[in-house]
Amino acid sequence: MRQRISLAAYTFSHFCVDFACFYMLFSGFRNFLSAGGAALQTVAVGFLLYNILAFGLQPFIGYACDARKGIPVAATGCALLLTGLALISLPWVSLVLCALGNACFHVGGGIDSLVHANGRMARSGIFVSSGAIGVSLGMMAGQSESVPLYVPMLLIAVCGIALLVIDKRTGRERSIMRFNITGALLPFSAMLALCLFSIVIRAYIGASVPIPWKTTALLMLLPSIGACSGKAAGGYLADKFGAKSTGVVTLLLSIPFLCLGYGHPVFCTVGIFLFNITMPVTLCAVASGFPHNPGLSFGLTTLGLLCGSVPTFFFAIPANVVPIVAALCIAASAACLFVSIINTKKEIAL
User: Fold this and answer.
1) What is the pLDDT of residues 248-303, one digit of tens each?
2) Of 161, 196, 75, 172, nearest to 115 (Cα)?
3) Which CATH number fits domain 188-340: 2.40.40.20, 1.20.1250.20, 2.60.120.260, 1.10.10.10?
4) Domain ranges of the chain
5) pLDDT score of 171
6) Residue 302 burial by CB count (10 A; 0-12/13-18/19+): exposed, middle or buried?
7) CA 79: distance to chain centroid?
8) By the 8 A CB rule, do 296 and 66 touch?
9) Are both 1-170 and 188-340 of the same fold?
10) At CA 202, angle to CA 197 and CA 206, rounded to 5?
């Protein structure tokens, strides 16, 4: 029961943290966004800095938490985020504090999702899923002047208190992570490189595939609903049918939906759902190689996401070749998983 409570708290907090961060980005930089022109370059620099801090620092924070267990890193992240929101009138200061808070929270949540997983992938999939909805709703709330600042601040304050209590009860409870989804045919370094490369590809294609139909609030939510449900379902499916079968098959199935159907809301959403199923698979595969380092494991996967997303800030795939490039990259990602992981079916549980 205690582990289910912590999962629920971290999953809800993940939604709130990403909601608050993107509220800050789109509210704090609203004047730059509305100005257009050269001001949009300033926004791009700000968003790039946010990604570098929020994703790039997680391996280091995670390693520090592995070395010194019991640090209330998730609650600390909420405190940083709350401070950043309070300073939203200073957008660059707010951005740095919120990015640092985001990084700390994700490490804490990632550790919780891995060490209490009992060797199953379902828990990590549930934890990571809620962030996608938080990002979309935070973007919309930040662009709208009808959502006051105290809404995200109140959410983060409640989450911070709840996580502080939970961390005091479970923060030092660490078990060796044994997911047993990586085989003995490849050296550890090769397995790790293939899994991380698969994550990099997924991040790059996920940020590159055009979604031209996001013209209403509901349609703007559809991609995040697809991503959320795919990540949440991915762990369950991998536990039931095996990590390799689930990861490889769903990636290949996503190709026609994403590469040919990206212009249609339903087809594209189905593709996003299938595409995101592999997220808990790759996370747990990396964690298999670091059984005593859940923080570092989680941080390495977010570093892969950063490496995949950074190129999209500097150049875009020409529209006429997006389907071909996306199909080849997704197939390459599936090939990486096929070589690096194995099937191990498990009883579904949290």
Assistant:
1) 999 999 999 999 999 999 999 999 999 999 999 999 999 988 888 999 999 999 99
2) 172
3) 1.20.1250.20
4) 1-170, 188-340
5) 54
6) buried
7) 20
8) yes
9) yes
10) 150
Cα 2 to its chain centre, rounded Å, is 24
Flag residues of the chain having pLDDT under 70. Answer: 169-177, 183-184, 344-350
Q: Which of 283, 280, 287, 299 is nearest to 106 (CA)?
A: 299
Could you tell me the pTM of the whole model? 0.93
CA distance 258 to 255: 5
Residue owning tokens 């559809």:
222
Count of CB atoms situated within 10 Å of the CB of 342: 15
Residue 296: DSSP 8-state? H
Q: What is the pLDDT of residues 210-257, one digit of tens each?
A: 888 988 888 999 999 999 999 999 999 999 999 999 999 999 999 999
Tokens 């600042």 correspond to 149
What is the residue whose two structure tokens read 């592995």?
66
Q: How far apart are CA 246 and CA 233, in angstroms?
A: 10
> What pLDDT is stored for residue 345 in this prediction?
57
- Check: CB of residue 34 under 8 Å from CB of residue 263: no
Hey, what CATH topology would domain 1-170 get? Growth Hormone; Chain: A; (1.20.1250)
**Dihedral of alpha carbons 298, 301, 305, 310, sign:** positive
- In the chain, the amino acid numbered 261 is G
Asked whether the beta carbons of 35 and 294 are under 8 A apart, the reply is no
Rounded distance between C-alpha atoms, residue 159 and residue 170, angstroms? 16
Tokens of 142: 């930040």
What's residue 302's pLDDT?
A: 96
Alpha-carbon distance 109 to 106, whole Å? Answer: 5
CA proximity to 243, closest of 230, 234, 231: 234
* Gap between the Cα atoms of 94 and 81, Å rounded: 8
